Amino acid sequence: MTEAVNDSEQFVYDICSKSFLSLWSYINPQGKTPGKELCDVLVVCDPHVIVISVKDIQLKNTDDPGVDWKRWQRKAIEDSVKQIKGAIRWLDQSKYVIQKNGSKGLKLPLASERIYHRVAVAFGGKREVPISSPIEDDEFYHILDEQSVFLLLRHLDTISDFVNYLIDKQVFLSNTSIIINGGEENLLAIYLHNNRQFPSEADMIILEDDLWEGISNKPEFKAKLQKDSESYIWDRLIEALCQGGFDGEDWLGPDMSKSELAIRVLVKENRFSRRMLGSAFKDFLELSRIGQVRSRCVQSMSSVGYVFFAYDSDSTLQERKSELLARCFASLCQFDECFTVIGIGVNIPGQKPRDGYSSDLVFLQTQNNQWSEEDLRQAQYCRDEFGFFKNPNKTHVHEDEYPVIENTDDT
């Protein structure tokens, strides 16, 4: 486990690395000066860069609450805003993340495409001090306390879910006056209850302190959390692929390989999409174990095509990679609206392969939302010559993110 300077930073880093996965989360990255931290936590997933500053300042209770509040706000919030500003000035000149130990991390998104999200986490205010998200130099800062950051990253625990919330919240608060009684989780309650949207026509809103408790106790909300358990199969797959090393290739370095680009696509799937994908991958593994299927192609909610392939235990490493690539090309005949296709090759569960265990990724992507004539010729050849996905059994799956629980009480 990567260790932070203090417990509050470790707390925020731990939930970030759990939500956004370890490859994209950095604790105490270096700035301009070696040994001096840039910020407390940095999350990078092209094009998004989340800069997080954490301050743990205990509120002092004297005879003058107004003075106590101002002192706490200055140390817990204003100092974080200054740190974030300085971090972004340095990042604007940088091409790579510099890790805590001084080594290069992942390449930063292109400056012209980079989207910064500024987050300050203020510990110690005991929810006695009013907290607002300031706008300085036309830039928005999200101010969270320890309870709200935990709940936000518990229920928006993918990079797509979280940054979409931050972007929508920034637009909403830029046009609407709001008073929140309690923590930001009550704002999150409005967002989730309104199908991940904020009210668009209100000039002013007052949120009561019981909104989060109300939505989190709904039967369909609890059912959603239960159904999401299968989505973490996708998370575990990502971590396994990251740790697999891809035949020893140092692909986790600063230069993005096709493997890293493929992993990034997997990471950008939101929690609901991961539920569907995790369930499909689990079903595929079970069927491949009993010999009913060797490959399956799935289209995600994000219009990405995925090809799952279980290797023959007698195949060589090169044969596995070649067949996975051919199956990905053949899938283009099925994925009319997919302009990114990811192939995931794994060993059949329970079988010991002759040439050892391996996991492979294939990354196919168009440059202009249109497959080239050569790509399509290759796709048709792989389908017709090898029979890959030539006569597939097609299934359409519908599922509600928040399942409706039917009342079975007959009384």
Automatic annotation (TrEMBL):
Domain of life: Bacteria
Name listed for the protein in its UniProt record: NERD domain-containing protein
Organism: Dendronalium phyllosphericum CENA369
